UniProtKB/TrEMBL annotation, chains A, B:
GO molecular function: DNA binding; DNA-binding transcription factor activity
Key words of the record: DNA-binding, Repressor, Transcription, Transcription regulation
Name of the protein in question: MerR family transcriptional regulator
Sequence ranges assigned to domain HTH merR-type in this UniProt record: 3-72
Classification lineage: Bacteria, Bacillati, Actinomycetota, Actinomycetes, Micromonosporales
Length: 147, 147
DNA sequence: TTGCATCCGGTACCTAGGTACAGGCTTACC
DNA sequence: GGTAAGCCTGTACCTAGGTACCGGATGCAA
């Protein structure tokens, strides 16, 4: 009985060895078979699974969401209405679009600050000669992920 | 001798009371005067300062950067070449633009996934009939803030 | 002066996604 | 069989930006 050793999987995917175990704890990776001595022996498709996980992360899904999506893919029947990749992708898409819109507002403000030549946050805020309303700017348009 | 009590400042700015002390520890707020019993008495302009801090945060600056910017605004001479608001705003602007570009790639991919009707991450990855290359998608275009 | 709301400092905890370390066992190769 | 590399579990730590809790002190009004 054979399989990939954890360092091989790590090397093949660029994922840290500790992270592999972390994903296992989080339920993203199935528990692999073990050697007689207790060492993990991964099946080949684990490499694919990790690539999928990383791709989904790059699309902005959290690890919890990725776990749900993988789960939903397994037993397709008896799953919640909005658990499918379709619905999640649509929801995620509108989040990403909202984020883009926020960032465009922010970019516009930064450009204005540069163009106006402001060089002191507090002075600009106190005096109305500065065109940038620092005290009230872009409320609710946080750069941070709002999820 | 008077001034605003911490709860008044908190209420006026929507900032948590603990956060006020946190900002003081981080050097974002000057240490205020105290009552005889040791209670903080804030000057009026602290409210403005907090609004500025929150605005700068919304523009995507970290608290460390905000502290630097406030510092730089105080003693304008003898400061580093790139410490000014101008330079920082320019740098931040290009970061924001890069982030927008990344998100646009991600949005495009999500749209493709929705249009193609994929509903199973792993199946889509294994079979080449799916137009979405989950295993190789948008490498380096993480949604996470790359700073 | 009593009573209650507020504030104090210090410390611990939270999210998200990992990463590192310690001490001991296993595997592989010569 | 020896030995070095690799792997095991468990636990602690990291970033960033806060938030919560505790026991005790203070402020203020009646």
């Amino acid at each position: 009985m054979s399989g990939l050793r954890s360092s091989q999987v790590a090397a093949a995917t660029g994922v840290n060895l500790q992270t592999l175990r972390y994903y296992e704890r989080r339920g993203l990776l199935a528990e692999p078979d073990r050697s007689l001595g207790g060492h993990r022996l991964y099946p080949e498709h684990t490499v694919t699974a990790l690539k999928v996980i990383k791709a989904a992360q790059r699309l902005g899904f959290t690890l919890d969401e990725v776990a749900d999506l993988l789960e939903a893919g397994q037993h397709r029947h008896a799953r919640r209405q909005d658990a499918g990749l379709q619905a999640r992708a649509r929801a995620r898409l509108s989040e990403v679009q909202a984020k883009i819109a926020n960032l465009q507002v922010i970019a516009g403000t930064l450009r204005a600050a540069v163009d106006a030549g402001c060089d002191d946050l507090v002075a600009c805020t106190d005096q109305p000669c500065c065109p940038i309303p620092f005290a009230t700017i872009a409320v609710g348009a946080s750069d941070a992920d709002p999820r």
